[in-house]
Each structure stands twice: as C-alpha cells, then as structure tokens.
Amino acid sequence: MKENFCIERSARYRFFQFFIMAVSPLSERWYAIGVIMNEKTLYLECYSGISGDMTVAALLDLGADQKVLRDGLNSLNVDGYKIKISQKDKSGLIACDFDVILEKDEEYALSANSDNLNLTIQSQEHLHVKLGFHENRNLYDINAIIDNSNISEEAKKTAKKIFYIDAVAEAKAHGKPLDKVYFHELGAIDSIVDIVSAAICLDNLGIKEVVITELHDGNGHIKCRGGKLPVPVPAVVNIVADYNIPLHITNINGELVTPTGAAIAAAIRTKDKLPKEFKIVKSGLGAGKREYEQPSILRAMIIEELL
C-alpha cells in the first residue's frame, strides 16, 4: 500500500514538473529539462568509514567515466604512479576497487593500501616528494598542479577545497601556519590522485547535492611516521568539529575514517539528512583496503526525493 502511494506521489510530481515546463517560456523549459535530467543527489553511507580510494571506487561503480578520469589524471603531469581499477569481493559483495600503485623507487615509505594523511611537520623544511622531480610541496604548490591541469573548473574547485580543508586540519593539529606545512602524505602522489579523482568523478556524474548524515570511525591507535596517534586521528577530529559532521565511534579497533575521507565529506556535503521518502536510482560500492570485522565498503547511492 505504501509502495503504491509512493509511486502515485512520484507520478504526480513528474506530471507537475512537465506541466511547469509546458507553461514556461522556451528558455526556461530547456533549463528545467537540464535540472531534471542532469542534477543528481548523492547519498554516501559511511557506516564503514570513508577514505579517498573508497570514495573514488564508489563513484566509479556508480558509472563515472574511466576515460574521463584517466585523461584528467594524465593532464596533471604527475609521474611515478599508475592506477588500477578492478573488482573485489568484500564479504560476498562485489565492490569496485581503486588502487594507486606507486613506483618502487619512492623516497618515502608510503603504503599504497591507505590514504592516511597524518602529517609530520618538518621544522627543517626538508621533504622530497617525487612528482617526476624532487622538491618540497605545500598546499600552494599542489594548487598550482591542479590549476595547470585540463580537468574541469568545477573539478578543480572541488579538489582544491578538499586539500584546503585537510591542510587546515593538519596545520591546526601541529600548530603551524599553512605555508609552513610540508606534507608527507598530503603532497604524496597517491593522495593527489585520490583527491583529484574524486573531484573528477563527482563532476562527471553531475552531482549537485550530497547527503552525508554521519561518519563512523573506529578506536584505538595507529602508527604513523611520528609515532602513534589516537583514533579518530587529530585531523579527522578537527574536520568533523569545524564542519559539524556527526561522528559515531564504533567498537572496531582501527581507523575507518582517514583525513582524506573526512576532508572529502566536509567539502562536498550539502545536506545532513535524507529525504523523508526517496527512491534509489542507482547504487555503487567502493572497496576499502583494510580488513575488519565488518566489510570495509563505502556505499554510494543516486537518489530522488519523492514529493
């Protein structure tokens, strides 16, 4: 009964939309058609956390164009990596896996299985990140890489917003100004690729609204270059506090929400509640690299509100 009622309401809403177009001037009709057909609402279900690679994988599983992604990444003129897009079994569920594979001669020890962005501030300002050559990298250097690429203006805006949110959180955690933060992971290849890839895929899918109700993280401690950090890590805590994102601590021992994941959520989130009634147009699963008691997946859904 409820299902029939929802279908009836949806039909009435579609009739109303096309009625408005019919009585509107021609230019407004074309605009309305564009809004109805192209603008999409994305719901990210973060019950198993969120990371950069999980986000990209979920968006690819939703149908983001792999060629558009690869062309955009190639325009960054960043060397030292390749990407692998495949499927992975997560507790019997088939999820998309997005992997950034680094060259073996990287000068820093980075795990390609994590986009954890816990930074060590270099007081001597000495850090090498291989992007085809060696030099220090801060937020402004990374912005220049993005600006000089051929990705869309919307994707550039999104990518730079994600990096800014992350950098501010890390600078706050370490008590340093932005221009004095030289990045281990934030300036590393895999993080640049993850963040820019997420921005490209969101733009390619035509996402205009993003619903994220809460983030679920684990507990305990993780190892980083500077020692051990509590979970949630300081950067994640700073981000959820600054952007009023509810955080739910689970009984899983480990990190479910990475700083990249939290920064992506903060940058793209436009709504904090799901519609009262909606239909799911399409769903996608993004695989995480770590194994916990529950499947490490990020579920993404294109939804339409039933009015």
H/E order of the elements? Answer: HHEHHEEEEHHHEEEEHEHEE
Low-pLDDT runs: 1-21, 26-37, 105-135
The percent of residues in helical segments reads 25-40%
How large is the radius of gyration?
A: 20 Å
What is the average of the pLDDT values?
A: 81
Strand order of the largest sheet: 6-1-12-11
Distinct helical segment count: 9
Total beta strand runs:
12
Largest sheet: 4 strands, mixed
Q: What fraction strand?
A: 15-25%
Structural class: alpha+beta
Spatial separation of the terminal alpha carbons: 17 Å
Coarse shape? globular
How many domains in all?
A: 1
Could you walk me through the main structural features you see in this protein, from its secondary elements to its overall organization?
This protein is of the alpha+beta class and 307 residues long. The protein has one domain (39-305). It is built from 9 helices and 12 strands. The chain has helices at 2-23, 26-38, 52-62, 66-74, 139-147, 153-174, 189-205, 234-242, 259-268; strands at residues 40-45, 81-90, 93-102, 129-130, 134-135, 207-211, 215-219, 221-224, 227-230, 247-253, 278-287, 297-305. The chain has a 4-stranded mixed β-sheet. Strand 2 (81-90) and strand 3 (93-102) form a beta hairpin. Helix 4 packs across helix 7 and helix 8 (234-242) runs parallel beside helix 9 (259-268). The model is unreliable at 1-21, 26-37 and 105-135 (pLDDT under 50).
